[in-house]
């Protein structure tokens, strides 16, 4: 399995397509998911070109996980959610649809079913 730079997140990272950006630094971009499973559903996308967790280099993971934690805390506070789900899929049979490594941060609200 190889990395195709024409994937949609690669294009967003290069500024070729728009997004609702909530954070960006040298490591990663965080944006709202276009089809959110709940209010405040974020995607955290490392800038390094990996297809998913299976081919990501440890440096990328080491740099992005503290950001995922920071954003999880910030999203929880900003949305007033009761919990937050971290999700990440690797290859199509596992549910991956965009083939650039990303992490879902999905706020969970008590008594509210996740969408989709
Ligand atoms: P996956 O199943 O690959 O983990 O999830 C890909 C996610 O990307 C889905 O939740 C989908 O809604 C989201 N997505 C797909 N295309 C776009 C897009 O063009 N912009 C944004 N913001 N999200 C997208």
From TrEMBL:
Motif (Histidine triad motif): 100-104
Active site: 102 (tele-amp-histidine intermediate)
Gene Ontology molecular function: catalytic activity
One of the GO biological process terms: nucleotide metabolic process
HIT domain boundaries: 8-116
Tree of life domain: Bacteria
Protein name, entry field: Histidine triad (HIT) family protein
Residues included from the entire protein: 1 to 116 of 139
